[in-house]
Amino acid sequence: MLQRLAVSPCIPVHRNPTRALSYRPPVCVQAPSHLVKRRSANFKPTIWHDKFIQSISSEDKHEGRNKENVTKLKEEVRQMVLKEELLRDKLELVDALQQLGVAYHFKEEIKSVLKGIHVSMIQMSFSTVGDLHVISLLFRHLRLHGFSVSEDIFKSYMDNKGDFRIELSLDIQGLLSLYEASYLAKEGEEILEKARQFTTKYLKSYIENSNRTCNNSREKEHVSHALELPLHWRMERLQTRWFIDEYKVEMKMRPVLLELAVLDFNLIQTSFKKELKDLSSWWTDLRLYEKLPFIRDRLVENHLWSVAFTFEPKHASLRKVQTKAICLIALFDDIYDVYGSLDELEAFTDAIEQWDLSAMEKLPEYMQICFMVLFNTLNDSAYDILRQKGLNIIPYLRRAWTELCKSWLAEARWYHGGYSPTLQEYLENAWVSIASIIVFSNAYCMDDDVTAKDLEQFSFSYPEIARLSSMTFRLYDDLGTSKAEIERGDVDKSIQCYMREKKVTESVARQDIRDMILKYWKLMNSQNVGSSVFQEYFRNVALNISRMAQCIYQHGDGYAEPGQETKDRVMSVLLEPIEI
Ligand code: 0FV
Ligand code: MN
Ligand code: MN
Ligand code: MN
Ligand code: MN
């Protein structure tokens, strides 16, 4: 199978301490930069200019009052969670909190409610029978929160041939909840696989029938939304935004919940805007785009990625680090894929590995700029952690950037050498070259709750869930971007490797790659990552990377060629408050 990367815990910054003494002026081995024949991908400029970003109001004159209100409402909701008695009510409340995007305020309470339910289920040997909707909600939330629960819980809804009983197809709410639960399946779980197929089939026919009869339009809207994408795969802030609007007209709507959700959404969004303004000043002041106009200039879209990984207020400084890193990832990726010559890329990869300003001198000027901006940005983020927590995380970040550059170099060598990798060769490299190891390393090393022991663990290998999530990101990316990449000249991506190896058409390959993605999701669900606060946080980052990748590439390449879809997402998550 796919190998994990071996890692030395502490890479010495200077391999040879006497180097400074034996310093000699560098010899430039490459062709002079102006003689290199360069390609360009003709990426469009950004639609979000700094002038516009700075003109956005990030001051809310009611911010103080709204914060006070949130504190008060939170207390009311906390009481609600603790007071609820019936199983159905408890679960529906937990589910609403989750979908309204405020569950993070009540982590402890929700855990304790679910723990109570779980304990009583153990006492009854999981022989719970009841409403399909309630049991499905129960199953999904137990799994999401790391409680062990077997798929056998659904056996009582099956006939003696092992199929779901046909009369269930009339229970739309039950079908919908079972459908959502089925996406929490682990590798090899057949009941849940049957559940997914059964519910998908009958929900689709419900939509077809109701197109003719036009009954209950809200239910229909919910079913279509779910069929488009299950909850487990959705980018959280976008789902929250959608659900808040739905919740407004829900029969069981509780005004306290709604008010909390809207205020909280807007407060968090105010923080996103402040972050964005700082980031836009940083990016504009670097003036990289003037010097390197061939790159993807996508600051705002990059911040949307960071928000997707960790939206909670306490992660504001991590988000800024992530957005800066993604700007540099996109810049470097374009150099390795399109702009740089192979000689230059070899030299650049060496320089990154050495992590030393003198290594930079051998590089052409445009690469010196790239090297230095990474050197400064990374050291800057690491400095904050060293100052605040006394932890030196530079070795971990260097490791990730070096591995990333090496994986990009491998692809460049393949491309320039006219080599077509096997699918396995490709994937072993491509889960790294998609660059999420940088996101993971930042998220891991810079979290408040990370312990020295966690860091030691990290120095041996990346957690398996990081590799699985990166794999989904890679495959989603290839589905959305490989057409343009191959046209402009690039190494074969997963789709082309698959077509060649299995001798199938592109549309078969695409479908099979979608099936592979589903398999990776199941493997992610199978990971037993532990239940500490830190472990749960890290698992969510992994799930969120897959969710965001699915979202950005849902309608093609929403990143390099952001159209109306991406613009709408930026507006509704980052810029437009919900009206009160
Ligand atoms: C990948 O671009 C991509 F979406 C980037 C670089 C931005 C977001 C990155 C992270 C959140 C880590 P592209 O399709 O050019 O990547 P490949 O690897 O296919 O060249
Ligand atoms: Mn690329
Ligand atoms: Mn690339
Ligand atoms: Mn944390
Ligand atoms: Mn790509």
UniProtKB/TrEMBL annotation:
UniProt key word Metal-binding: yes
Gene Ontology process terms (BP): diterpenoid biosynthetic process
GO molecular function: magnesium ion binding; terpene synthase activity
Keyword annotations from UniProtKB, A to Z: Magnesium, Metal-binding
Required cofactor(s): Mn(2+); Mg(2+)
Keyword Magnesium listed: yes
InterPro entries per UniProt: Isoprenoid_synthase_dom_sf, Terpene_cyclase-like_1_C, Terpene_cyclase_plant_C1, Terpene_synth_N, Terpene_synth_N_sf, Terpene_synthase-like, Terpene_synthase_metal-bd, Terpenoid_cyclase/PrenylTrfase
Organism: Rhynchospora pubera
Xref: Gene3D superfamilies: Farnesyl Diphosphate Synthase, Terpene synthase, N-terminal domain
Protein name: Terpene synthase
Ranges of residues in domain Terpene synthase metal-binding: 285-522
Boundaries of every Terpene synthase N-terminal domain copy: 47-227
PANTHER family: OS04G0344100 PROTEIN-RELATED, TERPENE SYNTHASE 12-RELATED
